[in-house]
TrEMBL record:
Domain Mannitol dehydrogenase C-terminal: 284-474
BP GO terms, sorted: mannitol metabolic process
The keyword Kinase appears for this protein: no
Annotated GO MF terms: mannitol 2-dehydrogenase activity
PROSITE patterns for the chain: MANNITOL_DHGENASE
Superkingdom per UniProt: Bacteria
Organism field: Phytobacter massiliensis
The organism's taxonomic lineage, starting at the top: Bacteria, Pseudomonadati, Pseudomonadota, Gammaproteobacteria, Enterobacterales
Matching Pfam families: Mannitol_dh (PF01232), Mannitol_dh_C (PF08125)
Stated name of the protein: Mannitol 2-dehydrogenase
Keyword list, A-Z: NAD, Oxidoreductase
SUPFAM superfamilies: 6-phosphogluconate dehydrogenase C-terminal domain-like, NAD(P)-binding Rossmann-fold domains
Database matches in InterPro entries: 6-PGluconate_DH-like_C_sf (IPR008927), 6PGD_dom2 (IPR013328), Mannitol_DH (IPR000669), Mannitol_DH/Oxidoreductase (IPR050988), Mannitol_DH_C (IPR013118), Mannitol_DH_CS (IPR023027), Mannitol_DH_N (IPR013131), NAD(P)-bd_dom_sf (IPR036291)
Coiled coil: none
Gene that this polypeptide is encoded by: mtlK
């Protein structure tokens, strides 16, 4: 078993920072040591340390899953690899910015709380996915009935959720008279800072109104827009790492070469100069994140559900199909782009061309099944909201309706065939879908779930008509024929 990163691998990296790691100070505590964080924020931070000489260390906390990842990280002295692949080139990068890691089921929640209360900590950052915020996707309020939240409200000193953990950490920082800090969401969610703030304040208010007021007055929650395709790791990906550096790094990730990070410059206790590593600090993130969530993520979801129905395992395979490639471009430019703010100072044609190129990269094995996960949390911002905006502007959202119809078929297929859907509403899907009901009745039962669709099923006949038309076409004529109709 390794007790350090192999010297033979260290010698093979094409990109490696050289700042003194012994001078790293844990000023960022990050919750959610997943693949995206390793390929995105950690890379930016490592590069920034090198470029500025101001050494911000990141300490990692994992609340769920097994402890193999954090154990392996400790054995490697908290070093890990990032293999960046374009269609033409491959770069191997060693990331050196981590100061430690804990897995709370193994190390205990108290160890995590204590890290948040260290006086030098200036930022708590998060990649916990949409469901980790325990919020209703339509109202964006904290879901007090969520089992994790219900537990934490009864046991606030021994939380299980990220929201409960942060509130307990902030309570103790206030009690000890420590400096305020910032809570920085790095998840792919619209207005992620505002969502985080609402969840934290809603939780705190249930416990102590004065604490909630202190948080509102002292803690900042910057919005961010994050972008880099970092697929879930597979045996094939670990083999790709081993091919590059001669070591199958269990903590390494393989991702695309492109990366982007746009951050609202609203920090209570300072922040790294991430802009030196090509991040962008702005006053308002919303126009950028709306463009990305709709044009990139909405198209990803379209390909995930409909490409999955067509039998494609990976996004790049969808793009090798001329029908799906043209349909993705149509969705981006003829629907999603037309739902954006008219004041957005971005060339959407150029952006769409970049997205098509990124989606087509055969070196990035991004599974349609991975993107399809947690659809109940993603559909509102990726499909429903842009459809309604187009409706207000007198534009038909046929491709968006087809995206939603593809999701309906995906969920119905999984449930009726006895499989669980990787979604926090899986149990609700099981409860409302009757196996012996006609297909469209099964779809309507999903369209009546208010936490996803609100009252659209009852109040918006055009929406239901368009979705039913696409849904029936998929059922009757097949997915490829249905998608092809979008580009004729």
């Amino acid at each position: 078993m390794n007790t350090t990163y192999p010297a033979s691998a260290m010698a093979k990296f094409t990109q490696k920072t050289a700042y003194p790691r012994k001078e790293l100070e844990t000023r960022i505590v990050h919750i959610g040591f997943g693949a995206f964080h390793r390929g995105h924020q950690a890379v930016y931070n490592d590069l920034t340390n090198q470029l500025t000489g101001d050494y911000w260390g990141i300490f990692e906390i994992n609340l769920f899953g097994g402890n193999a990842l954090t154990d392996a990280l400790a054995q490697q002295e908290h070093l890990f690899s990032v293999i960046e692949k374009s269609a033409q080139n491959t770069t191997s990068r060693l990331v050196r910015t981590l100061t430690g890691a804990i897995h709370t089921p193994k190390d205990g929640i108290q160890a995590a709380i204590e890290k948040l209360v260290e006086p030098q900590v200036k930022i708590i950052s998060l990649t916990i996915t949409e469901k980790g915020y325990c919020s209703d996707p339509r109202s964006r309020k904290l879901d007090l009935a969520n089992p994790l939240i219900a537990h934490d409200l009864k046991n606030p000193r021994a939380p299980q959720s990220a929201i409960g953990l942060i509130v307990e950490g902030l309570r103790l920082r206030r009690e000890k008279g420590l400096n305020p800090l910032s809570v920085l969401s790095c998840d792919n969610i619209p207005e992620n800072g505002a969502l985080t703030k609402t969840a934290i304040l809603d939780f705190a208010a249930q416990l102590d109104g004065d604490l909630a007021q202190w948080i509102e007055q002292n803690i900042t929650f910057p919005n961010t827009m994050v972008d880099r395709i970092v697929p879930a790791m597979t045996p094939e990906q670990f083999t790709a790492i081993e091919k590059e550096i001669g070591y199958a790094d269990p903590c390494g990730v393989v991702c695309e070469a492109f990366r982007q990070w746009i951050i609202e410059d609203n920090f209570a206790a300072g922040r790294p100069e991430w802009d030196k590593a090509e991040a962008m600090f702005v006053a308002d993130v919303l126009p950028y994140e709306e463009m990305k969530l709709r044009m990139l993520n909405g198209s990803h979801s379209f390909l995930a559900y409909n490409g999955g129905l067509a039998g494609y395992e990976f996004i790049y395979q969808c793009m090798e199909d001329a029908v799906f490639r043209k349909a993705a471009r149509h969705l981006m430019l003829q629907e999603q782009a037309k739902s954006l703010s008219p004041h957005l100072a971005v060339d959407v044609n150029q952006y769409a061309a970049l997205l098509i190129e990124r989606f087509s990269n055969p070196n990035i094995k991004h599974k349609t099944g991975q993107i399809a996960m947690d659809g109940s949390q993603k559909l509102p911002q990726r499909a429903i909201d842009p459809y309604l905006t187009l409706q207000q502007r007198g534009i038909k959202g046929r491709a968006l309706a087809t995206l939603i119809a593809g999701w309906l078929h995906y969920v119905i297929q999984e449930i009726t065939q006895g499989r669980d859907v990787a979604d926090p509403l899986n149990n609700e899907f099981k409860a409302v879908i009757k196996a012996d009901a006609p297909r469209w009745q099964q779809a309507l039962s999903l369209l009546n779930i208010q936490s996803i669709f609100g009252n659209l099923a009852a109040d918006n006949s055009d929406f239901i008509h368009d979705v039913q038309d696409a849904f029936t076409s998929i059922e009757t004529h097949g997915i490829t024929s249905t998608v092809e109709k979008l580009i004729k």
